[in-house]
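ARCHIVE CARD
CATEGORY: sequence design from structure
SOURCE FIELD: tokenized fold
FIELD CONTENT:
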């Protein structure tokens, strides 16, 4: 079932259609609004504050950094699990 999600950024409303995974789409929209507001508050008093495109680019970069960090942490975690599993399997096989 399709549903429309509306967010407000820079004093304007933007409406998006979510055809599937509506709850996930709502979470994504909330994240975008939260991150934009965070960047806006960090840029108060700077020339970038009045530049919505600049704010959106900084927001995208912050989200991308978080995404890369999560992927790197996940890879490290999976490597550690794999190493520990191999050691445990080796010990079990030697018994």
């Amino acid at each position: 079932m399709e549903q429309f999600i509306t967010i407000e950024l820079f004093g304007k409303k933007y409406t998006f259609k979510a055809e599937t995974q509506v709850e996930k789409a709502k979470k994504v929209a909330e994240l975008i609004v939260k991150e934009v507001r965070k960047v806006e508050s960090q840029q108060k008093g700077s020339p970038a504050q009045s530049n919505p495109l600049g704010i959106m680019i900084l927001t995208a970069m912050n989200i991308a950094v978080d995404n890369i960090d999560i992927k790197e942490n996940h890879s490290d975690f999976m490597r550690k699990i794999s190493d520990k599993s191999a050691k445990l399997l080796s010990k079990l096989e030697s018994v």
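CARD ANNOTATION: The chain has one domain: 3-94. Residues 3-94 form one domain.
SHELF: design records, drawer C
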